[in-house]
Each structure stands twice: as C-alpha cells, then as structure tokens.
Amino acid sequence: MSSNTKKQDSTAANSFYKKANALCLENSYKEAAANYLNAILIDRNNAESCFGLGICYKHLKQYSKAIKYFEMATERKEDYFEAFYELGICHLLEGIPCGAIKNFVRAIQINPDNPDAILQLGMAHELCEEYDLALMIYQKLIENSPGFIKAYEHKSTLLMKLDRYKEASNVLGQILKLNPDYYRAYAGIGVCFDKLGKTTCAIRYYRKFLSLKPFSTQADFIKNRLNKIKFNKPHHKYLSLCK
C-alpha cells in the first residue's frame, strides 16, 4: 500500500470517528455505532474507535457486544483505563459481577487514585457475596478518599444488610460530619436505631429526615413507622443513649 493510500485511509477513518463522536454527543448511538464501525473497518488498530463503539452498544443495552469492543480496545492499548473500567461496568450490567473484578483490578492498577473504580470493585465483590472483601475495600476507600461519600453509603448499606446496625449507624454518622444536610443518612440512622430497639433515637432521626425531605419516596414509609412507634407504649430500653 502506497503512502498516499495510507494517508487517504487515515483521513477517511478519522472522518468517520469524528462524525461518530459528534453523534454520541447528540445521543444518536445507533448512527454513531455505524460510523465507529466504518472507522474500524478502515483502521482495525484504532483503540479509540473500538472504545467508542463499545460505549454505543452499552447505551443501546447490548452489553455482550459492548464487552467485545471494549476488549478489542484493551488489546490495542494495554493501559486504556477507561476501557477496562467500562468492561467492568458492562460485566456488572450483564449480571456477571465476578467477571467484572479482574477488569476493575486492572483499571485500578493503571489509575490507583480513581475512587469510582475502587468503589465498583467493592460492589463487584459484594455482588459475588464476598462481603468481607467488599467491606475492606469500602473502608480503604474511606481512608484514602475521606470526602467520597459514596464509599460511606455503600459500606453502611452492606453493614445493614448483614444486620450490623450499630456499625452502620456509626458510618452514617461519619457522613453527617461531612455533610449535616445529607438526608439519606438521617433515614439510615433512624432505621438502625429502630432495629436496635432505640426508638426514641429512631424518632429523632426520622423526624430530621422528614424535615429535610417531606415528599421523598421514603417519606411515606417513615411516617408509617413513626405512627407505629408512637402507638406502642414506651419501654425503659427506649431511653438509652443514641450511640
């Protein structure tokens, strides 16, 4: 192939690639996919076109196809953080959490400071019912990125799932130190104290939640729970401190 032909092919591939990018910005993923595919047919070694096609299939909810093209992108560019990250996401969306783990691990090896990749790794372990590993990852993320509230949320939610309500309430309390208006933390702490039988404390946090979000989707549940608590006669154990 002459240098002139190669140059023409490169120009054509780049033209399809740019058109595909513009279509993605307009959420026209089917049309964008066709243009990325044309770019790949001309230049099969272009990792960015493979990645773009994977993104299109992800948005079109064709996750197995997305995985195929993200894998092609990683084969062409070994340190492609975004491709490994999206591979992990698509494995989760496809219902293969244990298959997502190796991709998130690779993404973290490339970019160790990305909190979203670390969070997704914890979620993948959690979905594989490897709860101790998930809790360890969430805690490490909290230590390394103390302002990353999602890590506290996922850790507290998992602790509640495991009926470890006191620990969960402590983690939710850490969220409130970061953001006193974080309404979901008040609801979570209310549930924790409710489960622990500390209903006076539960009422306090339930009311705080309702003062912040009176019309949220959780509001009806919390209002009903408050009514049930008030209906029951108080008991001495309800007077315990909110700790």
Plain-language structure description:
This protein has 243 residues and is an all-alpha fold. It has three domains: 8-77, Tetratricopeptide repeat domain (Serine Threonine Protein Phosphatase 5, Tetratricopeptide repeat); 90-145, Serine Threonine Protein Phosphatase 5, Tetratricopeptide repeat; 146-243, Serine Threonine Protein Phosphatase 5, Tetratricopeptide repeat, CATH 1.25.40.10. Helices cover 76% and strands 0% of the residues. The chain contains 13 helices and no strands. The longest helix is centred in the first third of the chain and has 23 residues, at 3-25. It is elongated and about 75 Å long. The model has no long low-confidence stretch (mean pLDDT 92).
Residue windows where pLDDT falls under 50 for at least 5 positions: none
CATH topology heading of the largest domain = Serine Threonine Protein Phosphatase 5, Tetratricopeptide repeat
List the total number of helices: 13
Number of strand segments: 0
Main β sheet profile: none
Give the count of structural domains. Answer: 3
Shape: elongated
- Residue share in helices? over 70%
CATH secondary-structure class of the largest domain: Mainly Alpha
Order of helices and strands: HHHHHHHHHHHHH
Q: What is the residue-mean pLDDT, rounded to a whole number? A: 92
Radius of gyration: 24 Å
Determine the CATH superfamily of the largest domain. Answer: Tetratricopeptide repeat domain
Strand content: under 5%
CATH second-level architecture of the largest domain? Alpha Horseshoe
